[in-house]
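Human: I hope this is not a bother. Would you mind checking the protein record under this note? Thank you for your patience.
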Amino acid sequence: MFDPVTLKLNVDPLILSALQEDITNEDVSTNSVMPHPQPGEVDLICKEDGVICGLQIFERVFTLLEENTQVETFVEDGDEVKNGQLLAKVRGDIRVLLCGERTALNYLQRMSGIATYTHSVAVLLEGTGTKLLDTRKTTPNNRIFEKYAVRTGGGNNHRLNLSDGVMLKDNHIGAAGGVKEAVTMAKEYAPFVRKIEVEVENIDMVKEAVEAGADIIMLDNMSHEEMREAMNYIDGRAQVEVSGNVTKENIAKLTDLGVDFISSGALTHSSPILDISLKNLHQI
């Protein structure tokens, strides 16, 4: 759940922007059939099995439109839900319920989809000692929601943004002139509290990263044999992350390596939504 300060400073502006995208002047359809205030109620119903996530954001959409809107929830973020299950009831001015419906569902469906997919991947790593990480491959202006959904599904967050840590990727290394040069420059520039992670693509780069004193070495798109050789060479002198086209279908093949982390962009860029609907709207 988002704390009050984060909600007000970092979440509310994004929700309001989404609402403004959907309502540039007025909701013509709603105003046509409901010209005056009228109390109403609508059911939030799950239409497929999954992990629910984003109920606080779903509610916030409606309360930003009208603070007296009430959302009664019967589940919590992280709960496994079933097709046909009643998740919540929303009560308030019918005009508000209609205006906020699509935006609220967009957040809830997207976040629940990510939590559901992340959960299905995370269970494959249970008992291995390897942590599942997300990436920065997120929808613009939705990263705070999508990374929260990853945590809800049982994954862990990598960097939130470029200010959050030092990760020297192939183009940083190219710009610096090599792995050793990049790590040396990062150590001189970055605060001492920052760990330095280096992306490597072959054994020679692994050796350079170890000798340069990198804290974390990311094995990117390397073969299984190369990764095993890399693990033997690193031998505990740095933490190890594996990355590169990792999905639910192939992650189990990596569990025998004994790495510290496996990151997967698919958690956020390829998760399908969870089908959820608002149904049975009626006056009260």
